[in-house]
Protein: WD repeat domain phosphoinositide-interacting protein 3
Amino acid sequence: MATPALPNPSPLLDDPLPPEPKPRREPKVRDPDAREPPAAAQDPEEDAPEEPEPEQDEGPEPPPLPTDAIEPTPSGAEVEDGDDTSSVSSVSSAAAATDAAAATGGKTERPFPAATDLLHISYNQDYGCFAAGTKTGFRIYNCDPFREIFRRDLGPSPTAVPGEEAAQALHQPAVAGGGGGGIGVVEMLFRCNILALVGGGDAPHYPPNKVMIWDDHQSRCIGELSFKSPVRGVRLRRDRIVVVLENKIFVYNFADLKLVQQIETAPNPKGLCSVSQQPGSIVLVCPGAQKGQIRVEHYGARKTKFINAHASRVACFALSQDGRLIATASTKGTLVRIFNAAEGNLLQEVRRGADRAEIYSLAFSNNLQYLAVSSDKGTIHVFNLKINVGLTTNDKPLPAPDADVPHMSPSFSFIKGVLPKYFHSEWSVAQFRLHEGEQYIVAFGHEKNTVAVVGMDGSFYRCQFDPVNGGEMQQLECHNFLKPSDQP
Structure:
């Protein structure tokens, strides 16, 4: 089937990056991480159940005619999915947090209730904005200065006008099984007018097995990709659309929505996938076919690299924007490993804490000097990266990541197997303490030594760390991006 081309993405929020040539197209288509050394236990292996392989059925559909362009006010980022396969969320709603966990480090008690209508949060590619998918639509926010840029309330279709007439009244394509306003995935393309949307929640606006390409200048969908199983995540580049299903990943050209590659993965309910963002050669990271393995696709060099990163299943990973470094964490969540993407060798290993934790997000700073980590323990960690990024491909690999005992002198060899790796770990240089049990995703801000944190409780924090002295970060601002009137 011939696939119509998509319209050119155009600046929506004063995109600071130079535009790349775009395809022309017709308009269709406690301290919980306290360093108290426990007994060193080996990672238990967590075998993932075999899942049926989902099939894909693509086919863009022509949307209605375009409406007037929208001019938004200028401004001046996965939790394990549940067993319910009828809904989609790349960052699903966090478990109810314990109110007994009062903030430390000079912070006050929680300033707002949990945002129960929030389905998804994610940063854009340069971490200057973040998007929120809710039960009634989606919203876009600027990080610095913080402000809401715009929102689209999709809501239920008018009851007085059924079917296609209702869709036309809303400037939306008619969607079978829709009718609600829930958006479970919203992925930005830097700051331009093109976004990818997937329905979610109890009343999804679009089917959870479809990726809708939204043009905000037209306030409508201009294309779609359909699948036979729920979409777990979407990643965008200026030239690629990456769709993540439970056991497969599909890579499409942005220009014409033609399929470029299909990748088989281990069960991936969290929709894990990262793609480099610099122009030119593309690097894509996804789960491999085996437990604890990640797969790295180097499209420019036309090669595939497999890295056995952990003995347990991979729970989270991040790729630097230039595609050179990969950070990974397992389901145990105590260690984070940094690999050279090109050669697959281990460059550094850092310790988040001693207790098992679920890692929610990992993020590299733009200069590749720092790595930030968030987890269900409620503490944001910043680690110093001791990597010569100019020579990463020639750096000497560290010992094999699954070695159980650290290197030690012969005089201490009698305690081999007793002294845990804990005592030899590299710890974070800075920490920011929030509410244990809440789900936060972290990114480095554009201002030097700053970190931005967005929470599934509707919170936004911006803080600053001291790269020399380290310790507790200074909170610069805190906002409730879902105002009390927005709470259900």
User: Anything to note?
Assistant: The mean pLDDT is 74. Residues 232-330+337-344 form a domain with the Methylamine Dehydrogenase; Chain H fold (CATH 2.130.10.10).
